Amino acid sequence: MKTWIAFYNILMKDMRSYYLKPPNISWGLIFPIAWTLMFFLRSPVAVEVRDLLPGVMALSILFGTTSMLAVTITFERKSRSFERLLLAPISLNLLMLAKTSGAIMFGVVNAFIPVIFAGFLTSLSGINWLMVLGSVILIAITSTFLGLFVAVSVSQIFEAQTFSNFFRFPMLFLCGLFIPLSDLPGFLRPISYALPLTYGADILKSSINQNGIISIPLSFFALIVFSVFLFAYSIYNVNRKWIV
Amino acid sequence: MKIIEVENLKKNYNGFTAVDGVNFYINQGEIFGFLGPNGAGKTTTINMLTGIAKITEGSVKLLGEDYTGNAKKAQAIMGIVPDESNLYEELSGWENLAFCGALYGMEKKLREERATQLLEEFGLEDASSKSFKAYSKGMKRKLAIAAGIIHQPEILFLDEPTTGIDVGFARQIRNLIIDLHSKGTTIFLTTHYIEEAERLCERLAFIVQGKIVREGTVEEMMRETQEENIVNFTLGGDFARIEEEFRSHFPEFNLKMVKNNDVSIHSPSAFTLFPFVQFFEERSIPVFEAKIVRPSLEEVFVKVTGIELRKMQSEQTQRRKIGQKGEGSRS
User: Fold this and answer.
1) How far apart are CA A191 and CA B184, in angstroms?
2) Residues of B in contact with A22 (CB under 8 A)
3) Which residues 50-79 on chain A approach chain B with CB closer than 8 angstroms?
4) What is the pLDDT of residues B109-132, one digit of tens each?
5) Contact A84, B79 (CB under 8 A)
6) Per-residue model confidence as pLDDT tens digits over B40-55
7) Which residues in chain A are contacts of B153 at CB distance < 8 A?
8) Dihedral angle at the C-alpha atoms of A202, A207, A211, A217, nearest 10 degrees?
9) Residues B177-194: what's their mean pLDDT?
10) Using H for helix, E for strand and C for coil, what is the string for chain B?
11) What is the DSSP string of A128-178?
12) Strand pairing of B31-35 and B186-191?
């Protein structure tokens, strides 16, 4: 059987049904503007847009992907249309990759919207774009798989949102984007290093402003390990909880 | 040829046994029915056979090949229509069918042609571009069946296909099932409607509390349950005047008056009708009708299981109505 046909069509259906819907497109535009404005308004001194860029990009990906995936999969589970996918003759791994690919692409696109805005406000020269792209893709993958992990752990849509925030908000403050890791209390630092976004954000800082503190290969490796772990654990949970 | 063979299939949920060691087979090209009350284990059995529930114990073979615990191997030749719709509310009827075709690896041109063809066959062509959420319950069920057969499966699983839909649509769906069967599709049908099972199925299994209590053809089941042979005569004259004579003429037969001029003749062994017809004719009593009376499938079911399925159905309908009223008053 041509499984790629199934993969491609699941991806395209999700794109049309969820990711390319006007509310989501506007989310992708409003979120980075709101974050940037927030920093401008709250800061007593002039804020350099380029300093904000890694943080806004990373958060655009994190919030975009986790929200969408956790909610769409929980919604499909509730309406039983996810069962239709489980009955299709494609492997569970491929099915979940098809379901998550749309969110990953949504995350990557979301990440570059702040870059477009920043391009009008500041110079973007001297940025290692290849590394930016690599880190954006890996942040999108880990965040999406985090959304998958949430989706598999809950049964109601409101739970998906609440449970996502349980991970997202600590990440927001502990990943070193807005409060440098060195300024965090000692007991919080191990938690920071246990969060995938810490590594993704650090690569973005290194490639945009050359002020990352973690070795870049180590950060890439950590993101890959997080991705593999979150995906494998989610598949294990799908097998355990949804195919009872 | 057996398309599906199930041996000692069991399903336990947290200590509760939903399916308790069932054995059955389905021949290629037949309609096999699973008849039982709600909660008997019908849907759980389908879920295990189609791979969305794990098998606790037992084995399942498809065309002689064991696929226990690896349903993905078999899903390509299965079509599944669950008891509740699992299509996409936001997609149109046509898009839903084309998408389901894609899940089975069908090429774009082929699945689109087939989607159009099925919508025509199922009388849904006018609603092809309507979103699925705008469909009526009966239309949704028809589209779900179309989605189940878009890839032309060898075997189609239909879980309670006519439950909860109006009489007109139920009739259309039964005709669609007959039509699919005539084209050679093997069908595994679960139902709790006795008339549906009797009308559609060639072979049946009664399932109660997770166990198969009887399996066989409808004919076999009726024959096994039949304790005596009964023929009903509708006569065109007054039987009372010849009753005494009849009893003395046929002393080995048991006679029962049904209505004024209707009599039924009972015998433990098979008998021919001619002597009776001749007896009546000679006494100038015309015979308008002679009908062999067989037990209904419902009688067979009650006898085998001790469960009044019809009573359960009406209780369920009553509960559903009360539930709907409750929801209505809340809203």
Assistant:
1) 62
2) none
3) 79
4) 999 999 999 999 999 999 999 999
5) no
6) 999 999 999 999 999 9
7) none
8) 50
9) 93
10) CEEEEEEEEEEEECCEEEEEEEEEEEECCCEEEEECCCCCCHHHHHHHHHCCCCCCEEEEEECCEECCCCCHHHHCCEEEECCCCCCCCCCEHHHHHHHHHHHCCCCHHHHHHHHHHHHHHCCCHHHCCCEHHHCCHHHHHHHHHHHHHCCCCCEEEEECCCCCCCHHHHHHHHHHHHHHHHCCCEEEEEECCHHHHHHHCCEEEEEECCEEEEEEEHHHHHHHHCCCEEEEEEECCCHHHHHHHHHHHCCCCEEEEEECCEEEEEECCCCCCHHHHHHHHHCCCCEEEEEEECCCHHHHHHHHHCCCHHHHHHHHHHHHHHHHHHHHHHC
11) -HHHHHHHHHHHHHHHHHHHHHHHHH-SSHHHHHHHHHHHHHHHHHHSSSS
12) parallel
* Per-residue CA distances from B258 to B144, B160, B274, B298 (Å): 46, 37, 21, 21
Distance, in Å, from the CA atom of A109 to the CA atom of A87, rounded to the nearest integer, reads 31
Strand B57-62: give its sheet, edge to edge. Answer: B16-27, B2-13, B57-62, B65-66
B80 interaction partners in chain A (CB closer than 8 Å) = 87
Which of 77-136 (B) contact A at CB < 8 A? Answer: 78, 80, 82, 84-91, 99-100, 102-107
- Among A116, A142, A135, A113, CA closest to A207: A135
CB under 8 Å to B24, separation ≥6 — which residues? B6, B32, B205, B212, B215
Residue contact A84–B87, C-beta within 8 A: yes
> What predicted TM-score, i.e. pTM, was given to this entire model?
0.85
ipTM: 0.89
Low-confidence stretches of chain A (pLDDT beneath 70): 1, 43-47
Give me A59's structure tokens: 């958060």
Tokens of B201: 């199925």
CB distance B267 to B316 below 8 Å: no
Distance of CA A228 to the CA centre of its chain: 15
Which residues, listed in sequence order, are joined to residue B211 by a DSSP beta bridge? B208
Q: Which residue has the tokens 């009308």?
A: B199
Nearest residue to B22 via CA among B287, B214, B167: B214
Q: Most B CBs within 10 Å: which of A14, A87, A99, as the mutation test of the B interface? A: A87
Find tokens 């189940």 and name the residue.
Answer: B148
Report residue B166 as tokens. Answer: 């109006």
B chain contacts of residue A24, beta-carbon cutoff 8 Å: none
